[in-house]
């Protein structure tokens, strides 16, 4: 079992920056590839960024490229999602999720490949 706890969500003004954190406990964090998803009411959960166990990162979708990054500190069992130039459409609940080894390479955008999820943290961007 892996327990994930997100933090850092808050109400911010458009154009500002925010960094979300997700801290893991349980099994060896460094074995897991990690994803950050976001979800708004009435829509499916959408991958924002993913980082492999060894550190290779993918930023999805195009709407957040150049504004979102992802990093991890395996010594602290934590994955981060720094977000710059926030827009009102970034308003969502943000979830971190753990993809157990071996990592998914073709369908990593699908929530179903991630076995463990946090409860989410709300980010609200005001215009």
Outline the secondary-structure elements.
Layout lengths: L1 E6 L3 E3 L4 E9 L6 E7 L6 E6 L5 E3 L11 E3 L4 E6 L8 E8 L16 E2 L3 E6 L1
Parallel strand pairs: 2-11
Antiparallel strand pairs: 1-3, 3-8, 4-5, 4-9, 5-6, 7-8, 9-10, 9-11
Summarize the structure.
The protein has 127 residues and is mainly beta. 0% of the residues lie in helices and 46% in strands.
- Helix-and-strand structural type: mainly beta
Q: Tell me what portion of residues adopts beta-strand conformation.
A: over 45%
Number of helices: 0
Distance between the termini: 40 Å
User: How are helices and strands ordered from N to C?
Assistant: EEEEEEEEEEE
Characterize the overall form: globular
Over all CA atoms, what is the radius of gyration? 13 Å
User: What oligomerization state is this entry in?
Assistant: single chain
Average predicted confidence as pLDDT: 92
Query: Could you estimate the helical fraction of the residues in percent?
Result: under 10%
* Tally of DSSP β-strands: 11
Largest sheet: 7 strands, mixed
Low-confidence stretches: none
List keywords for this structure.
127 residues; mainly beta; seven-stranded mixed beta sheet; four-stranded antiparallel beta sheet; 11 strands; globular
């Amino acid at each position: 079992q892996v327990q994930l706890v997100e933090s850092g969500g808050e109400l911010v003004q458009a154009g500002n920056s925010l960094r979300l954190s997700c801290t893991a406990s349980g099994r060896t964090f460094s074995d897991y590839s990690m994803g950050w998803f976001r979800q708004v009411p009435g829509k499916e959960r959408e991958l924002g960024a993913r980082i492999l166990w060894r550190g290779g990162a993918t930023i999805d979708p195009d709407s957040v490229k150049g504004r979102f990054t992802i990093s991890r500190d395996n010594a602290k069992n934590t994955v981060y999602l720094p977000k710059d130039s926030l827009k009102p459409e970034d308003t969502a609940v943000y979830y971190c999720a753990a993809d157990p080894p071996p990592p998914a390479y073709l369908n990593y955008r699908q929530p179903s490949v991630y076995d463990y999820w946090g409860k989410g943290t709300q980010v609200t961007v005001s215009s």
